[in-house]
Amino acid sequence: MSNRELVVLGTASQAPTRARNHNGYLLRWDGVGFLFDPGEGTQRQMIRAGVSSHDIDHICISHFHGDHCLGLPGVLQRLSLDRMPRPVHAHFPAAGTEFFRRLHRASAFDEVAEVRERPVERGGTVFTGAFGALEAVPLDHRIETFGYRLVEPDGRRMLPDRLARFGVRGPDVGRLQRAGSLRVGARTVSLEEVSEPRPGQRFAFVMDTRLCDGVFELAAGADVLVIESTFLEQDARLADEYRHLTAAQAARVAAECGVRCLVLTHFSQRYPDPRRFRDEAAEVFDGQLVVAEDLVRVPVPPRR
Protein backbone atom coordinates (compact mmCIF):
# COMPACT_ATOMS: atom_id res chain seq x y z
CA MET A 1 0.00 0.00 0.00
CA SER A 2 1.29 3.44 -0.90
CA ASN A 3 2.21 5.71 1.99
CA ARG A 4 0.68 8.54 -0.04
CA GLU A 5 -2.65 7.99 -1.67
CA LEU A 6 -6.04 9.59 -2.25
CA VAL A 7 -9.12 7.58 -1.29
CA VAL A 8 -12.16 8.93 -3.14
CA LEU A 9 -15.32 8.60 -1.05
CA GLY A 10 -17.77 10.54 -3.23
CA THR A 11 -17.78 12.37 -6.55
CA ALA A 12 -21.23 13.91 -7.08
CA SER A 13 -22.02 17.60 -6.98
CA GLN A 14 -25.29 19.09 -5.69
CA ALA A 15 -27.34 15.90 -6.03
CA PRO A 16 -26.04 12.35 -5.54
CA THR A 17 -26.82 9.62 -8.06
CA ARG A 18 -27.13 5.85 -7.91
CA ALA A 19 -23.41 5.58 -8.70
CA ARG A 20 -22.04 8.70 -7.02
CA ASN A 21 -22.19 9.73 -3.38
CA HIS A 22 -21.79 13.32 -2.27
CA ASN A 23 -18.22 14.60 -1.91
CA GLY A 24 -15.58 13.09 0.34
CA TYR A 25 -11.83 12.63 -0.11
CA LEU A 26 -9.27 11.16 2.28
CA LEU A 27 -5.60 11.86 1.62
CA ARG A 28 -3.17 9.51 3.34
CA TRP A 29 0.24 11.15 3.61
CA ASP A 30 2.95 9.24 5.49
CA GLY A 31 0.64 8.28 8.33
CA VAL A 32 -1.23 11.59 8.50
CA GLY A 33 -4.83 11.68 7.24
CA PHE A 34 -6.63 14.65 5.69
CA LEU A 35 -10.40 14.37 5.16
CA PHE A 36 -11.65 16.93 2.64
CA ASP A 37 -15.27 18.06 2.25
CA PRO A 38 -17.25 15.25 3.92
CA GLY A 39 -20.63 15.40 2.22
CA GLU A 40 -23.74 13.46 3.19
CA GLY A 41 -23.06 9.72 3.52
CA THR A 42 -19.32 10.05 4.11
CA GLN A 43 -19.32 7.85 7.22
CA ARG A 44 -20.79 4.91 5.28
CA GLN A 45 -18.47 5.51 2.32
CA MET A 46 -15.53 5.36 4.72
CA ILE A 47 -16.65 1.91 5.84
CA ARG A 48 -17.03 0.75 2.24
CA ALA A 49 -13.55 2.08 1.40
CA GLY A 50 -11.88 0.53 4.44
CA VAL A 51 -11.18 3.92 6.04
CA SER A 52 -11.25 4.21 9.84
CA SER A 53 -12.08 7.31 11.84
CA HIS A 54 -8.62 6.84 13.35
CA ASP A 55 -7.18 7.60 9.90
CA ILE A 56 -8.30 11.24 10.24
CA ASP A 57 -5.98 13.89 11.68
CA HIS A 58 -7.30 16.93 9.81
CA ILE A 59 -10.73 17.81 8.41
CA CYS A 60 -10.67 20.47 5.70
CA ILE A 61 -13.92 22.12 4.62
CA SER A 62 -13.76 24.24 1.47
CA HIS A 63 -17.15 25.92 2.05
CA PHE A 64 -20.52 25.34 3.67
CA HIS A 65 -22.73 24.22 0.82
CA GLY A 66 -24.43 20.99 1.86
CA ASP A 67 -22.75 18.62 -0.58
CA HIS A 68 -19.42 19.53 1.02
CA CYS A 69 -20.29 19.40 4.71
CA LEU A 70 -23.51 17.56 5.59
CA GLY A 71 -21.55 14.41 6.43
CA LEU A 72 -19.65 16.28 9.12
CA PRO A 73 -21.99 15.49 12.05
CA GLY A 74 -21.65 11.75 11.49
CA VAL A 75 -17.87 11.92 11.10
CA LEU A 76 -17.41 14.00 14.26
CA GLN A 77 -19.67 11.74 16.29
CA ARG A 78 -17.88 8.65 14.94
CA LEU A 79 -14.58 10.04 16.23
CA SER A 80 -16.03 9.98 19.74
CA LEU A 81 -17.75 6.63 19.29
CA ASP A 82 -14.40 5.15 18.28
CA ARG A 83 -12.61 7.03 21.08
CA MET A 84 -10.12 8.82 18.88
CA PRO A 85 -6.99 9.08 21.08
CA ARG A 86 -5.49 12.24 19.56
CA PRO A 87 -6.80 15.69 18.62
CA VAL A 88 -8.35 16.24 15.18
CA HIS A 89 -7.88 19.67 13.62
CA ALA A 90 -10.84 21.13 11.74
CA HIS A 91 -10.09 23.78 9.10
CA PHE A 92 -12.97 25.75 7.59
CA PRO A 93 -13.84 29.25 6.35
CA ALA A 94 -14.12 31.60 9.31
CA ALA A 95 -17.29 33.12 7.87
CA GLY A 96 -18.94 29.71 8.34
CA THR A 97 -17.98 29.19 11.97
CA GLU A 98 -21.62 29.17 13.06
CA PHE A 99 -22.42 26.50 10.44
CA PHE A 100 -19.54 24.38 11.71
CA ARG A 101 -20.72 24.60 15.29
CA ARG A 102 -24.30 23.76 14.38
CA LEU A 103 -23.11 20.71 12.45
CA HIS A 104 -20.86 19.72 15.34
CA ARG A 105 -23.83 19.82 17.71
CA ALA A 106 -26.48 18.60 15.29
CA SER A 107 -27.65 15.95 17.77
CA ALA A 108 -26.95 14.70 21.26
CA PHE A 109 -23.90 12.48 21.76
CA ASP A 110 -21.18 11.80 24.31
CA GLU A 111 -18.20 13.72 23.03
CA VAL A 112 -14.94 12.00 23.85
CA ALA A 113 -12.79 13.04 20.91
CA GLU A 114 -11.03 16.41 20.93
CA VAL A 115 -11.85 18.48 17.83
CA ARG A 116 -9.82 21.66 17.56
CA GLU A 117 -11.43 24.44 15.54
CA ARG A 118 -9.03 26.23 13.19
CA PRO A 119 -11.12 28.75 11.21
CA VAL A 120 -9.43 30.12 8.09
CA GLU A 121 -9.55 33.92 7.83
CA ARG A 122 -7.52 35.04 4.84
CA GLY A 123 -5.58 32.02 3.70
CA GLY A 124 -1.87 31.30 3.84
CA THR A 125 -0.32 28.58 5.97
CA VAL A 126 -2.95 27.21 8.35
CA PHE A 127 -0.99 24.33 9.90
CA THR A 128 2.53 22.95 9.95
CA GLY A 129 3.72 19.52 10.95
CA ALA A 130 6.23 16.82 10.10
CA PHE A 131 4.43 16.44 6.75
CA GLY A 132 5.15 20.07 5.80
CA ALA A 133 2.63 22.89 5.51
CA LEU A 134 -1.13 22.92 4.94
CA GLU A 135 -2.06 26.07 3.05
CA ALA A 136 -5.42 27.65 2.21
CA VAL A 137 -6.11 29.96 -0.74
CA PRO A 138 -9.35 31.94 -1.39
CA LEU A 139 -11.43 30.88 -4.40
CA ASP A 140 -14.28 32.52 -6.33
CA HIS A 141 -17.61 30.92 -5.45
CA ARG A 142 -20.99 32.22 -4.30
CA ILE A 143 -19.99 32.03 -0.62
CA GLU A 144 -16.60 32.19 1.09
CA THR A 145 -14.58 29.27 -0.22
CA PHE A 146 -11.00 28.10 0.21
CA GLY A 147 -8.90 25.58 -1.64
CA TYR A 148 -6.19 23.67 0.18
CA ARG A 149 -2.64 22.66 -0.67
CA LEU A 150 -0.25 20.33 1.12
CA VAL A 151 3.38 21.37 0.58
CA GLU A 152 6.23 19.10 1.59
CA PRO A 153 9.51 20.95 2.23
CA ASP A 154 12.37 20.37 -0.17
CA GLY A 155 14.95 17.91 1.06
CA ARG A 156 17.92 15.92 -0.18
CA ARG A 157 18.18 12.45 -1.69
CA MET A 158 21.07 10.35 -0.40
CA LEU A 159 23.25 8.78 -3.11
CA PRO A 160 24.41 5.24 -2.17
CA ASP A 161 27.46 5.24 -4.45
CA ARG A 162 28.80 8.47 -2.93
CA LEU A 163 28.06 7.29 0.61
CA ALA A 164 30.09 4.16 -0.12
CA ARG A 165 32.92 6.20 -1.67
CA PHE A 166 33.27 8.29 1.48
CA GLY A 167 32.77 5.35 3.86
CA VAL A 168 29.50 6.59 5.36
CA ARG A 169 27.31 3.66 6.41
CA GLY A 170 24.76 2.48 8.96
CA PRO A 171 23.72 4.94 11.68
CA ASP A 172 26.25 7.46 10.39
CA VAL A 173 23.97 8.19 7.44
CA GLY A 174 21.28 9.52 9.79
CA ARG A 175 23.84 11.48 11.79
CA LEU A 176 25.09 13.12 8.60
CA GLN A 177 21.55 14.02 7.54
CA ARG A 178 20.79 15.63 10.89
CA ALA A 179 24.10 17.46 11.37
CA GLY A 180 24.91 18.38 7.76
CA SER A 181 28.47 17.10 8.08
CA LEU A 182 30.30 14.16 9.61
CA ARG A 183 33.89 13.35 10.48
CA VAL A 184 34.93 10.10 8.75
CA GLY A 185 38.52 9.09 9.36
CA ALA A 186 40.80 11.97 8.49
CA ARG A 187 38.24 14.15 6.68
CA THR A 188 34.88 15.81 7.14
CA VAL A 189 32.14 14.73 4.73
CA SER A 190 29.43 17.28 3.95
CA LEU A 191 25.82 16.40 3.18
CA GLU A 192 26.11 18.08 -0.24
CA GLU A 193 28.90 15.65 -1.21
CA VAL A 194 26.76 12.55 -0.79
CA SER A 195 23.29 13.76 -1.76
CA GLU A 196 21.34 15.78 -4.31
CA PRO A 197 18.35 18.15 -4.01
CA ARG A 198 14.96 16.44 -3.68
CA PRO A 199 11.97 18.67 -4.41
CA GLY A 200 9.11 18.28 -1.95
CA GLN A 201 5.81 16.92 -3.25
CA ARG A 202 2.55 18.87 -3.45
CA PHE A 203 -1.12 17.97 -3.27
CA ALA A 204 -3.84 20.48 -4.23
CA PHE A 205 -7.59 20.42 -3.60
CA VAL A 206 -9.83 22.81 -5.56
CA MET A 207 -13.62 22.75 -5.19
CA ASP A 208 -16.50 24.98 -6.26
CA THR A 209 -14.99 27.96 -7.99
CA ARG A 210 -14.78 29.60 -11.36
CA LEU A 211 -11.38 30.37 -12.83
CA CYS A 212 -9.43 32.80 -10.64
CA ASP A 213 -5.86 33.43 -9.54
CA GLY A 214 -6.35 31.15 -6.53
CA VAL A 215 -6.98 28.11 -8.73
CA PHE A 216 -3.67 28.56 -10.54
CA GLU A 217 -1.83 29.31 -7.31
CA LEU A 218 -3.03 26.08 -5.73
CA ALA A 219 -2.29 23.95 -8.81
CA ALA A 220 1.24 25.24 -9.45
CA GLY A 221 3.64 22.31 -9.51
CA ALA A 222 1.15 19.88 -7.92
CA ASP A 223 1.95 16.18 -8.05
CA VAL A 224 -1.79 15.56 -7.62
CA LEU A 225 -4.54 18.09 -8.33
CA VAL A 226 -8.07 17.15 -7.23
CA ILE A 227 -10.34 19.64 -8.93
CA GLU A 228 -14.03 20.10 -9.58
CA SER A 229 -15.25 19.76 -13.15
CA THR A 230 -18.95 20.15 -12.58
CA PHE A 231 -19.80 21.01 -16.18
CA LEU A 232 -18.74 20.21 -19.72
CA GLU A 233 -17.58 23.01 -22.00
CA GLN A 234 -20.91 23.01 -23.85
CA ASP A 235 -22.36 24.52 -20.66
CA ALA A 236 -19.53 26.97 -19.97
CA ARG A 237 -21.94 29.89 -19.61
CA LEU A 238 -23.90 27.99 -16.98
CA ALA A 239 -20.65 27.08 -15.20
CA ASP A 240 -19.65 30.72 -15.00
CA GLU A 241 -23.08 31.76 -13.77
CA TYR A 242 -22.95 29.27 -10.89
CA ARG A 243 -19.19 29.84 -10.38
CA HIS A 244 -17.99 26.37 -11.28
CA LEU A 245 -15.44 24.88 -13.67
CA THR A 246 -15.73 22.81 -16.82
CA ALA A 247 -13.58 19.76 -17.52
CA ALA A 248 -11.73 21.72 -20.21
CA GLN A 249 -10.98 24.56 -17.80
CA ALA A 250 -9.72 22.15 -15.14
CA ALA A 251 -7.47 20.49 -17.73
CA ARG A 252 -6.16 23.85 -18.88
CA VAL A 253 -5.19 24.69 -15.31
CA ALA A 254 -3.35 21.37 -14.99
CA ALA A 255 -1.54 21.83 -18.29
CA GLU A 256 -0.43 25.38 -17.56
CA CYS A 257 0.63 24.63 -13.98
CA GLY A 258 2.72 21.52 -14.63
CA VAL A 259 0.43 19.12 -12.76
CA ARG A 260 1.50 15.48 -12.87
CA CYS A 261 -1.77 13.74 -11.98
CA LEU A 262 -5.13 15.41 -12.64
CA VAL A 263 -8.16 14.05 -10.76
CA LEU A 264 -11.50 15.33 -12.04
CA THR A 265 -14.51 15.12 -9.74
CA HIS A 266 -17.71 16.84 -8.50
CA PHE A 267 -19.75 15.93 -11.58
CA SER A 268 -23.21 17.29 -12.29
CA GLN A 269 -25.92 14.63 -12.48
CA ARG A 270 -26.95 16.06 -15.87
CA TYR A 271 -24.15 14.07 -17.56
CA PRO A 272 -24.66 10.30 -17.32
CA ASP A 273 -21.54 9.34 -19.31
CA PRO A 274 -18.25 10.08 -17.47
CA ARG A 275 -16.24 9.36 -20.62
CA ARG A 276 -17.21 12.79 -21.91
CA PHE A 277 -15.23 14.42 -19.08
CA ARG A 278 -12.16 12.35 -19.95
CA ASP A 279 -12.45 13.10 -23.65
CA GLU A 280 -12.82 16.83 -23.06
CA ALA A 281 -9.93 17.04 -20.59
CA ALA A 282 -7.62 14.86 -22.69
CA GLU A 283 -7.80 17.34 -25.54
CA VAL A 284 -6.04 19.88 -23.30
CA PHE A 285 -3.99 17.85 -20.78
CA ASP A 286 -1.66 15.01 -21.79
CA GLY A 287 -0.52 13.92 -18.32
CA GLN A 288 -1.99 11.29 -15.99
CA LEU A 289 -5.74 11.81 -15.98
CA VAL A 290 -8.25 10.25 -13.56
CA VAL A 291 -12.00 10.71 -13.91
CA ALA A 292 -12.80 9.90 -10.30
CA GLU A 293 -15.28 7.25 -9.28
CA ASP A 294 -16.48 6.49 -5.78
CA LEU A 295 -14.15 4.28 -3.71
CA VAL A 296 -11.17 4.40 -6.09
CA ARG A 297 -7.67 4.92 -4.76
CA VAL A 298 -5.22 7.19 -6.53
CA PRO A 299 -1.56 6.84 -5.49
CA VAL A 300 0.54 9.97 -5.39
CA PRO A 301 3.07 9.61 -8.24
CA PRO A 302 6.60 8.61 -7.23
CA ARG A 303 9.06 11.42 -6.79
CA ARG A 304 10.51 12.84 -9.94
TrEMBL record:
Enzyme class comes to hydrolase
Active site positions, chain numbering = D67 (proton acceptor)
Q: Keywords of this protein's UniProt record, alphabetized?
A: Endonuclease, Hydrolase, Metal-binding, Nuclease, tRNA processing, Zinc
Q: Which residues bind Zn(2+) 1?
A: H63, H65, H141, D208
Domain of life, source organism:
Bacteria
Known EC number(s)?
3.1.26.11
Q: Which residues bind Zn(2+) 2?
A: D67, H68, D208, H266
Q: Name one GO molecular function term.
A: zinc ion binding
InterPro entries linked to this entry: Metallo-B-lactamas, RibonucZ/Hydroxyglut_hydro, RNase_Z/BN
SUPFAM superfamilies reported for this sequence: Metallo-hydrolase/oxidoreductase
Cofactor(s) listed: Zn(2+)
Q: Any binding details for the cofactor? A: Binds 2 Zn(2+) ions.
The family database entries (Pfam families) matched by this protein are listed as: Lactamase_B, Lactamase_B_2
Question: Where do the Metallo-beta-lactamase domain residues begin and end?
Answer: 19-133, 198-267
Tell me what reaction this enzyme catalyses. Endonucleolytic cleavage of RNA, removing extra 3' nucleotides from tRNA precursor, generating 3' termini of tRNAs. A 3'-hydroxy group is left at the tRNA terminus and a 5'-phosphoryl group is left at the trailer molecule
Briefly, what is this protein's role?
A: Zinc phosphodiesterase, which displays some tRNA 3'-processing endonuclease activity. Probably involved in tRNA maturation, by removing a 3'-trailer from precursor tRNA.
User: What family is reported?
Assistant: Belongs to the RNase Z family.
Q: How does it assemble?
A: Homodimer.
Please give the name of this protein. Ribonuclease Z
What organism does the record attribute this protein to?
Answer: Saccharopolyspora hirsuta
